[in-house]
Amino acid sequence: KLHEEYGSSASFALQIAAYWSAILHLLLAITGTFILKRFSTAFTVGFFLGVAVVVSQQDLLLFASFYHYQHGNLMFNLIFADLALALCILLTFFSLILGHFRHHIIVK
Questions:
Q1: For residues 76 and 44, what is the distance between their CA atoms, to the nearest angstrom?
Q2: Cβ atoms within 10 A of the Cβ of 48, count?
Q3: φ and ψ at 60, to 5 degrees?
Q4: Residue 92, CB half-sphere, CA atoms under 13 Å: how many?
Q5: Cα-based torsion angle of the residue sequence 47, 52, 57, 63 in order, rounded to the nearest 10 degrees
Q6: Chain centroid to CA 103: how far?
């Protein structure tokens, strides 16, 4: 009964959101590593800071969208929503620290 009530797999919307989010976070990590290690100009650090804030806000929207989403397996939706909230908090904290110490990172 529990299997029939909650569904056996994630919804198609959750799968698309999970893949899209994973790709963006991977690209953010690769780009951020390159910018902070090799190419730390004012423009690139500002660009990276802006992208990190945008991805953080996307994670907040994913949390809000999937927290009470009723399609597919409800537990998968809740786990994804909680992960998105954790990533949102982590990226927000990282963005605040990067914004505060950007003058120490930028190479002139």
A1: 36
A2: 22
A3: -65, -40
A4: 11
A5: 160
A6: 25
The pTM score is 0.85
**Cα–Cα distance between 29 and 20 in angstroms, integer?**
14
Rounding to the nearest 10 degrees, give the CA dihedral for residues 75, 79, 82, 88.
-140
pLDDT in tens, 41-74: 999 999 999 999 999 999 999 999 999 888 888 8
**Which residue is associated with the tokens 């996307």?**
58
What number is the average pLDDT over the span 24-32? Answer: 96
Percent of the chain with pLDDT strictly greater than 70 = 93
**Could you report the per-residue pLDDT of 78-99, keeping only the tens digit for each?**
999 999 999 999 999 999 999 9
- Return the SS3 of 73: coil
Tokens, residue 97: 């620290």
Are the CB atoms for 82 and 19 separated by under 8 Å? no
pLDDT of residue 8: 65
